Amino acid sequence: MSVLDVTAPSQLPPIWDELITGLTVGVLLTDERGQVLATNDVAADLMQLTKSDLLTGARPSGWTVRDDTGAAMPDWSELAGQVLRAGSPLSTPMVVERGGHPTRLWGDFHAVRAQGKRRVLILLQAVQTDVGHARGLLDPLTGLPGRALLLDRLEQSLVRARTRGMLTTLVLIDVQQLAAFNTEHGFDRGDELLSTLAGRLRQGLPDEHTVARYGGDEFALVADHPHGTGAAIAQQARRVATWPMRIGRSRVRPGLRVSWVTTNGNATAHAVLSRAEQQLQH
């Protein structure tokens, strides 16, 4: 296994080969434009490409990469720029498919310095069925993405909005008087209520939307769309979540507060979340 820097006449220092030889994870090093400068055999195998494809940017016919919702992945140039601007890691699931053979991967993007220049180090791993729970990214009660994964999905959506002329809408849904419900019916029934709500939202909204558990009594929704204010998306989420349900022997119609924010991507994920939280309180 060797690692080659294709932007310079000489190879990267031999320490690179020593560090990654025998690793079971894929390793890629890119510049700020997303150009792959170095890689290993494991990364090529996981991406269903050759090392030459990765280094030159060639993509064979029939090869695709999407996120785990089925939406197209942002270009690596977009992800690299986002990681370098933020200075913080980004983690994302992806599905690589070639010839009808999908492979689910987990990518971790890290801002690093190599040979005195800003680079992005990408680590790729094959996804196991419990990877989300193992990483603490999925809510153990509902199975939905948790707050950390929601933030990642929101950041990806904002990148797509900026670069593709799309809009991003974030919807927050607050379950009112959950504490009183727990007191009256017990925490098990409260958990059942939240699990049922999670299922309703996941099944009643388009697959390409991200539905997440944002807090103890809050859910969140991230959606890409070409136009509009997001009001229709928020209304659909409210309608789905307020369907009557049977919890134990009781028929329950949850009381909800809903807020939403729509942006063209020229705002940070934290700014969008903060605005939605403020609106939820008024």
Distance between the termini: 58 Å
Structural class: alpha+beta
Number of beta-strand segments: 12
Number of DSSP helical runs:
10
Helix content: 25-40%
What sort of overall outline do the alpha carbons produce when their principal axes are compared?
A: elongated
* Order of adjacent strands in the largest pleated sheet: 2-1-6-5-4-3
Please state the CA-atom Rg, rounded to the nearest Å. 21 Å
Indicate the mean pLDDT. 82
Strand portion: 25-35%
**Biggest beta sheet attributes:** 6 strands, antiparallel
Order of helices and strands: HEEHHEHEEEHHEHHEEHEEEH
Low-confidence stretches: 1-11
Q: Any chance you could write out the topology, listing elements then pairs?
A:
Layout: H1 15-20, E1 26-30, E2 36-39, H2 41-46, H3 51-56, E3 63-66, H4 76-86, E4 90-98, E5 101-114, E6 117-126, H5 131-134, H6 147-164, E7 167-175, H7 178-185, H8 187-204, E8 210-215, E9 218-225, H9 231-241, E10 245-247, E11 250-252, E12 256-263, H10 269-280
Helix pairs in contact: 7-8
